[in-house]
From TrEMBL:
Part of the sulfo-TAL (or sulfo-SFT) pathway, a D-sulfoquinovose degradation pathway that produces sulfolactate (SL). Catalyzes the oxidation of 3-sulfolactaldehyde (SLA) to sulfolactate (SL). It comes from the Bacteria. It catalyses: (2S)-3-sulfolactaldehyde + NAD(+) + H2O = (2S)-3-sulfolactate + NADH + 2 H(+). GO terms for molecular function: lactaldehyde dehydrogenase (NAD+) activity. Keywords: Oxidoreductase. The keyword Oxidoreductase applies. Transmembrane segments: none annotated. Its EC number is 1.2.1.97. Residues 17-474 form the Aldehyde dehydrogenase domain. It comes from Aquisalibacillus elongatus. This is 3-sulfolactaldehyde dehydrogenase. Belongs to the aldehyde dehydrogenase family. It is an enzyme of class 1 (oxidoreductase).
Amino acid sequence: MKQLQVRAEKMMLAGKWVQTSQTFGVYDPQDNRLIAHVPLSSKADMKMAIEEAESAFKNNQDWPTHDRIRVLKGAVDYINENKELYAQTIASEGSKTITEARGEVKRAMQTLEISAEEARRLKGETINFDQNEGSENRVGYYYRFPIGVVGAITPFNDPLNLVAHKVGPAIAAGNAIVVKPASVTPLSALLLADAFEAAGLPKGMLSVITGSGRDLGETLVTHSAVKMVSFTGGLDAGRKVAEQAGIKHIGMELGSNSPAIVMSDCDIDDAVTSSVAGSFGAVGQNCIGVQRIYIERDVYDEFVKKMAFQTNALKVGDKLLDETNVGPLITEKEAMRVEEWVNEAVEKGATILAGGKRNGAFYAPTIIADAPEDATIVKEEIFGPVVNVFPVDSLKEAIEKSNNVNYGLQAGIFTKNLDHAFYAIQNLECGGVMVNDTSDYRIDEMPFGGVKNSGLGREGIKFSIESMTEPKVVSIKL
């Protein structure tokens, strides 16, 4: 994988680069240009990858921590040496601009670096058995051990870093992992496998199996050797995974419909700039992107006017140009869905304040006012460059409306008042509250996940490692 012209790719199956008799095309969503032919793997391929992963894990159960650290840091070095190739690949197969893609490469390196650091910190603790009468002659401790094979299913919107968020913690914990990347963006995941191969990862500990989720997902999720399923994707697919998985660890990040609250005492210009970035970054295809903004009524007109001005100034176009702010959605079909949701809201009385136009897979950054509560674009996750704005009369009203959806990943509030901030922190139903930031703020070390239909468990390297390990108690009678 050394160039960006149309090429025939191989996939990583148990440490070997293999081809299959059938392939599928990977296309640039901007112009539908064919980028690569990628193996269309079968259920038998997936089954082989899992069984080889199980064998590799058993053969590497004494894999020392220092060697896991070496491999993870070696992968970081390899990515750093080839970072422009990684960025170009992300931007070509997905929706991100080249600037956003370079940022994702940097984050992926940090994710793996943190994974190496957390491998060093994977510890247990001693247990005071003498707290129990009759156990004065016992000492002991617990430690954490790797669960075995992790099955990972990843989405298209962060095709490198979200894969790194599965692979890094799995390797840090000493597990083997089988990754099924999104079929529209598999190239970045294959490049990540390149990095681990170059770093000397033991054969079989990583597989990246490309193909249809419909054909491969059930095998990966239900196989008895897979002890954990780590899934990032849509709610409907997540429900199916949960139904199929059976008794095993499950980690799920299923998206959101994130709110931001703008209080009249905040720095309005900062809130506007942050909200534009949080709403339209990665063309809105971001699980923590801002979808609803609740603004105190006395600053509503000022905020909306400034936000519309900044939104209209965003440059939509060629992803590979440094000056481009917003690229295409992942497919024209997705852009058409966004268009349908906007049109439905308008038919129900909403007003378009900016944007509202589609051109193929491109959809202009759009601000909508007056959308009714029952509009799809208010209740569900838009996953596109559209944000709803609403005036409110109080913080309590803003929080009640913020909570009035079946998601709860992250939220933001802009205020200079600590009482307002802590009231929001305590009452917003979500996994993270960002004060004087939008919901679209994350560092890769922090616990990341949500409540309600936003998922199960938490990612963030330390927290992922905990879910990919089990504690074992040791008691010694003296």
